[in-house]
What does this fold into?
Amino acid sequence: MLALYDATVVFGDNDRSVPALRGVRFEAPKGQWTAVVGRNGSGKSTLLLALAGMVPLQEGVLTVDGRPAGDPQETVAKAVRLVTSRPEHQIVGATPREDIAFGLQNMGLPRPEIERRVRSALQAFDLEPVADVPVHRLSGGQLQRLALAGAWAAKPEWILLDEPTAMLDPDHQDQVLRLLDGLRRSGTGIIHTTHFLEEIDWADAVYLMEAGQVFPLGSPAEIRIQWERLESAGFPKPWKWRIADAVRLAGVNRPVDGRTPWSALAAHLAGADLIDGPPETSAPQAPPDTPAAGPEPLGPSSRRSGARDSGPPVAAIRKLEVGQGRLHVGECDIRAGLTAVLGASGAGKSTFLYTLLGLMPSVRGVYAAFGGEPYRSREALARLRAHAAMALQFPEQQFFAPTVYDDIAYPLLRRNLDPREVDRRVRETADMLEIESLLNRSPFSLSFGEQRRAALAGVLALEPTLAALDEPFAGLDPAGRAHLAGLIREWATEHGAAVLVATHHIDELLEFADEWMVIHRSRLAARGSLADCAAAFRPWASEDPEGWARLILAAAGRRTAVPAPPGPSPPAGAANRKEGGEHP
Amino acid sequence: MNGEPLLAQYVPGTGLLHRLDARSKSVAVALLTADVLHASWPLEVCGLALLAVLGIRLAGIGARQVWRSLRPLFFLVAFSALMNLLSVPGDPAWRLGPLTVTRAGLLTALETLTRIPVLILTASILVWTTPPGALIDGMTAAARPLARLGRAGTALQDLALFAGLALRFLPMVHESFHRVRIARLARGIDLEGGPAWVRWRNLAELIIPWLIDVFRRADAVAIGLAARGYRRGTVRTPWQIRRWSAADYLLVGIGLLVTLWVWRRELFPAPPL
It folds into this structure.
């Protein structure tokens, strides 16, 4: 048992030093999987640091198998390995082979033993083919596996993982979770924090963190029965569960839960004859706009699809090749409204956005925007720069000004705008993104969600006609994602701008997107409504079964149409209640 | 977003030099760099250049890769050569308006254009053929007898580790700068247009956000190191060290012989006649 009793941790000496942990009691048995859920800033990372003996406790005690961990923390250092939330910061070797050895060298193991463990770790985590490849060439999924391999090679009794799936696309999420499951079966204790609630189906026991306090919730089965507790903590039912409920309701008699791979879910749905039906038609009974935070209904809203063809395109692409085959786009018009750009990691979503912003070094073919071709004339490029703006992934990493206000105002001042105009734009944008009360604070003192909104404000304050946001939801908790999606939608409507949002999670934008695009293997593979995309993506289904599965499930969402619940099945009933008005 | 930086980065391979122990390569390269600095121009420097080219061939590094990794430094070298060309006093050879080129200036410029690249190439062969971990382990192993002396010895090990980590994280620092630059462009800040001084000012304004980003990442790396079980003063097992083969001894032997030759006048001063 790895346990904390009455643990309190207070960080820092700034004016607002709230305890990060408050009287925490937490117990993680060996050989079991303990999941910890909680919103951004609830103290999950601190809990893991405390369990790894890496932060001093102001009060309370950390015990390993009932014995208090001594001051040099030797017992903890031997028994526990922590995998932090950004693997690239804890991978210190130049190659996977070297990196796995690093931790073992620190343990002072003899060379032949290091040799042996490195070899078996490379094998166990499927890293042999890249064993000697420099780590800066590895993909996100490979880096995450390497971080795990490094922890596993030390043969700890517990592995602690801080949001191990947050930076991964859904396919790699499944892969990492399956690896952890294998570790649990071999007797390792798993402690894992997450925002993705469907992942708790893997756990033996689940805890909820709120403002530095820990509440035991019991087993996943118990949680499903009393979901209200989690819902009140800001966790709507995960999309995957709702799909699984729909599958169950459709009479598919298979065990389905958060562990079921997307491709299997899709296969069940196909078996139930819920997909491949006629393309969706407009829904006259669609409800009015409800952009506020809250549970998204199951399925896309097509209420805006009629308005799509009106108005000239903001930008147009005809047969474009970017770099040496880094991206191919056949024909594509960018129009006002919110466009979701989907695709697996590395498929080329970012490259697509960079291309639209005129940030790529070379292209062949035609890209026209704002009355010119930015890749052919400097003048057109300058016009594009004046009318388009983009937020990179993790835009908050670019903060540098002393206050939020200064950071948002910086590019406006550089454009020599009138100070009053600058002030108006900063305040209006801050107001829309609900950070107006934070304008005089240092951006570095904000919470994660606030930082994200402040950083996006720094782009939207330019009032671009074409705005590109690369993974704006990455790392946010579900309520934060839903909230932000609503704010972005509102901003797009208000400004009549074309907003492109690259994301690998469909569910955030189900409610809000006007148009969908799918990038697959460096190609714009599909665009249009979700149903159009699902149909167009069909030829690639075998290459990316998970991506296709999510697409058709989303498209089928409306039609899944979930016939009235056949019986008093509790999860189904709950799902139906939540989707309320969306169903006829 | 762009080609990866190759300056001081390990290039995986299985050539002869890749298979040698980090310590023998370090010793040989240390000797040869001292030689390059001391060698007389042009014959000895050219001889050492030939040796460097031979080393690159042995390491199996292609000419394209060599050029790509030297390109960032090329302008620096060319610039200092130009300065030499125009500023060394002596008998004027040509006059072009206010500019005077002297014979001595021309020779110094040519020397700069050869000696510095040879120096960089010689040092690069070591980092191209040796992973940073092996360099760290080599130094750790060499410092191991000292570790028994206590603090000073372990401090040397830590120093070796941090030097190696610096190499490992160079690509990250490079990528960070690139991201800061792209983020600026993406917020509509023109970095390319305008007269030279404006472009320099734009560049200077990138430095602060870049440093903030690098320091923030350094914090994260410190936590990552602790999570991997590293504490300052830990006595680590040197892992990537190899028993010296004949080739290792041969390499060090060549290094010693070249050094003896280059420093012959200092080591064996001619008896006064």
Observations:
- Confidence is low (pLDDT under 50) at residues 277-308, 558-584 of chain A.
